[in-house]
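Shipment paperwork, digital attachment
Item: protein structure file
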Amino acid sequence: MTARARASRRRLLAGILGVSVLAGASALGGTQQVDARFTDLEYAASSTFTSFTVPPATITACTITNNALGIFQGVTLVWTSIYPASGVRLTLTQGATTAVVPASNISTSGPSSGVYTHTAVLSQTLLSSLITNLLGSTTTLTVNNLLAGTAWVSVGVSRQLSMTLAGLGATCT
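Attachment content:
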């Protein structure tokens, strides 16, 4: 046998071996397709999904206190919530300034039938220390419920405290 014939024979054997390997690999099977658990009907049909939203508080009163001359002295905000004092927050917003009312200025009673009553008595002095330009402005009082141990917060419920520059005609709506 000549060198040329041997080379040709080796190439033929190499080709047959290559085709055999490819045929064997395809016979063994490649990767199998699988369904994700959430798309497989046998699991999806039996699964349930629930969500939770922190329920908002309910503001029951916003009362203005004036002195004998009718000049604003303070505001009392009363709200109910299923959360105790540690689960509520009262903020004041005026323009771009927002301040949190200290918990020491909020008193809580209850629960009564699972509901707490929170009362914040905010004097003009306290309000002015938190929001510097109180007179002649509108300040938003917002209450949020907080879910303990999480960053979850309810939508805010608000009242608007408005008054003239002289502190007259204050309203809370």
